[in-house]
Amino acid sequence: MVHQALNPQSLNAQAINSPTFNSSEIVTLKPTNNKTPLIYKVLTVLGMMTLMGGTLTGVMTFLNLGYSDSFFSDWLSAFLLAAVTVMPAGFTMMALLTKLVEILMLNSGEKLKNTLIGISMALIMESGIALSTTYNNLGVTNSETFFTAWFNTLVTALPFALTIMVIVSLTIKPKVEAILKG
Q1: Residue 64 region, left (φ>0) first, then alpha (ψ -120 to 50), else beta?
Q2: Which of 20, 32, 72, 75 could be cross-linked to 61 through a Cys-Cys bond (beta carbons 3.0 to 4.6 Å apart)?
Q3: Distance separating alpha carbons of residues 160 and 122, to the nearest angstrom
Q4: Cβ-count burial of 180 within 10 angstroms (0-12 exposed, 13-18 middle, 19+ buried)?
Q5: Is 60 within 8 Å of 134 (Cβ atoms)?
Q6: CB of 175 within 8 A of CB of 32?
Q7: Cα angle vertex 82, ends 78, 86, to 5°?
Q8: Which of 141, 139, 150 is nearest to 63 (CA)?
């Protein structure tokens, strides 16, 4: 009996249940397109933005205003402002910083590079998100009061941001990069 090459479209329940079906042939099937679909890339980036930005703006909104009946609307407003301003700039900066670290630290290990990128991005993103969240929550009526509130928000939330960014850089970032490159 001559076996023809199987493709995913030709497989069906009748063929699989056939007495001449050889299940080892399934192992030899290879996808024709290894490229990650654009929708997965978009969803991955949106997921990262929501995880990082949502968490940080929530912490910062709490630091600025405390918990009240309007907390969730205040947080959502701060998150959306950061999502359309700070986060796109942050993803661009992360890509540039990753390239720079790859060039400057050519012989260093991947974990060291990702740790350095995580700490740097925590400082950059934290500053920007603290700025947009403080602006959203308090406005700029007095520049000294605004600067003090921004600085206090930044310093208070910084340990949390550093922790989450290093964890993400060491665990999630490599997987996200693989999806985006695919």
Answers
A1: alpha
A2: 75
A3: 9
A4: middle
A5: yes
A6: no
A7: 155
A8: 150
The one-letter code for the residue type at 110 is: E
- Report how far residue 128's alpha carbon sits from residue 154's, in angstroms, rounded to the nearest whole number: 9
Question: Which helix (DSSP H) or strand (DSSP E) does residue 118 occupy?
Answer: helix 110-138
Q: Is 157 exposed, middle or buried (0-12, 13-18, 19+ CB in 10 A)?
A: buried
Render each residue's pLDDT in the chain as its tens digit; 182 residues. Answer: 454 555 444 445 454 555 565 555 554 444 455 677 888 877 877 887 788 888 889 999 998 899 999 999 999 999 999 999 998 888 788 889 989 998 999 888 888 888 888 788 878 888 999 999 999 988 998 999 999 999 999 998 888 877 887 787 778 777 777 777 77
134: part of which helix (H) or strand (E)? helix 110-138
